[in-house]
Amino acid sequence: MKKDKILSILLPVITVGCILVLWSVSAVAVDNEFLLPNLKLTFTSLITLFSSGEFYLAFLYTLLRSLIAFIVSFLLATVLAVIGNANALAKRVIKILISITRALPTIAVVLLLLFWTNSQVAPVIVTMLVVLPTVYTNVDNALNEIDYEQLQMCKLFNVNSKTILTKVKIPQIAPSMVNAIGSGLSLNLKLMVAAEVLSQTAKSLGYMLNTSKVYFEISTMIAIVLVTVIVGIIIETVFSKVSERLGKWK
Amino acid sequence: MEMIELKNITKNYGNLSVYNNFNLNVEKGKITAVLGESGSGKTTLLNILANLTDFQGEVIGVEKNVAFVFQKDRLISNLTVGENLSLVNPGVDVVKTLKEYSIADKVNDYPKSLSGGQARRLAIARAFCVNAKTVFMDEPFINLDVKLKFELINKIKEKQKTDNSTVIVVTHDVKEAVLIADRIIVLSKGNIALDVKRVNEKTENEILGLMINGKI
Asked: Which of residues 145-184 of A touch B (CB under 8 A)?
């Protein structure tokens, strides 16, 4: 157990260390800061980024859009999963709709949405659509974590519906649901930045990324990517820990 | 004498007929054991009595408040041992009840940490803590060691007497049936093959003899 705990701390540190060493060696080998800036330069760009008000504004707006897209996607996925679990025919129809959504070509959808809406709204809708199939699958799996034999037992012992919901159903789906929210939010953020790049959304990390590309500020681009990756990892880790706590009975 | 009555029960699983116009009367306030080989319809009979499955026919005399010890314990995995009891009876004295079944030290543990015997004790404690007038038990002693089996049989008999409840136990073990029941019904292919209304020390050998000779 103790060995496992030490490994769970050491392994990420060693992995990140290896990536940084590989990066440094590659930067020395390439010897061209426009192609691959070294760690020091990227770190300086990161500090510059953190000292600029524009970055925080862009970051906040990107997070906000991301959150809106995810909430809509999550609510929609939950409604669809609940309907699907209540009716077998509806589930088959929902599966077809989800397959169609999954097959949508992202770039084409962004371009179409830019015609129909604007650069602020288009990334939100496209992110919501791209994330929906994954969120739906996760929510559906979480709903299937409910043990129906245990529910039958509760009904037989005349446990009331409210107690069944609060003490059995919700606690049984909560760990998987929280995990699904964590990984969904992380995926959502990455997709949002990509959609913002394509949509040229003002006040966004995607826009900053695009501007850095135009001015060959590769170190700034990598710094923005780093921020996105770190925030994604933090979100996933926090939600995973909460999920572990909620599922201590498993 | 009050009775639980099953009248003209017909139950099919697809093309498989389990019961066809089956009739049975079970005396209330007694322990009745239903014996039979696998597939003889024992569990289906309990499910019909507890209204857990669709069927044709009529069941009379089963009160609304019943309890059930399922073959799989069906403990709520996300609730502690104590919470599993208070879920079905919020007013129960959890510690006192668990003490009766020798699992009071597990009150704050989750079911995953219980041994098979402890989980079974909890399932039986749960069934008797709701003060139901009718208790159904589906193979309650399966996979238990002999000592625990006898201990639980005595406990069930004691509780049944105190509560004056009707207990219907399904088992495939003749010895278990003889030890626990006032009456033994042997099922075979959806029919009553033998009905022993007075169980005594000779019953086990009589049933085994009939089984060995292929008469039931």
From this structure: 147, 149-150, 152-154, 156-159, 163, 167-168, 171-172
Take residue A220 and report the two structure tokens written for it: 């700034």
CA distances from B203 to A69, A108, B26, B33, B185 (A): 71, 80, 19, 13, 12
Residue count of chain B:
216
Q: Of B66, B68, B74, which is closest to A150 when you measure between CB atoms? A: B74
Chain A nearest-CA distance from B78, in A, is 5
Tell me if B50 sits within 8 A of B68, measured CB to CB. Answer: yes
Whether residue B105 is contained in a domain is answered as: no
Residues of B with CB under 8 A from a CB of A: 50, 52, 64-68, 70, 72, 74-79, 83, 87-88, 110-112, 126, 130
Supply the CATH number for residue B173's domain. 3.40.50.300
Return the structure tokens found at A4: 């496992």
Task: Give the tens place of pLDDT for each residue, B110-129.
Answer: 999 999 999 999 999 999 99
Task: Give the chain A residue nearest B114 (alpha carbons).
Answer: A249
- Say if residues A23 and A218 touch (Cβ distance below 8 Å): no
Measured between alpha carbons, how far is residue B186 from residues A63, B36, B65, B141, B152 in Å? 68, 6, 27, 18, 22
The ranges of chain A with pLDDT < 70 are: 1
Residue B128 lies in a domain: no
Q: What are phi and psi of A240, to 5 degrees?
A: -65, -40
Which helix (H) or strand (E) is A101 found in, with range?
A: helix A88-103
Let me know if residue B115 belongs to a domain. no
Evaluate whether the domain defined by A42-246 bears CATH number 1.10.3720.10: yes
Structural domain containing residue B174: 3-76+133-212
Cα–Cα distance measured from residue B106 to residue A57, given in angstroms and rounded to the nearest whole number: 53
Structure-token match 């789906």, residue found: A173
Q: Where are the domains of chain A?
A: 1-31, 42-246
What percent of chain B clears pLDDT 70, i.e. is strictly above it? 100
Look at A158 and B76 and tell me if their CB atoms are within 8 Å: no
The number of folded domains in chain B is 1
Rounded distance, CA B156 to CA B167, Å?
Answer: 9
Q: Do A150 and B83 touch (CB under 8 A)?
A: no
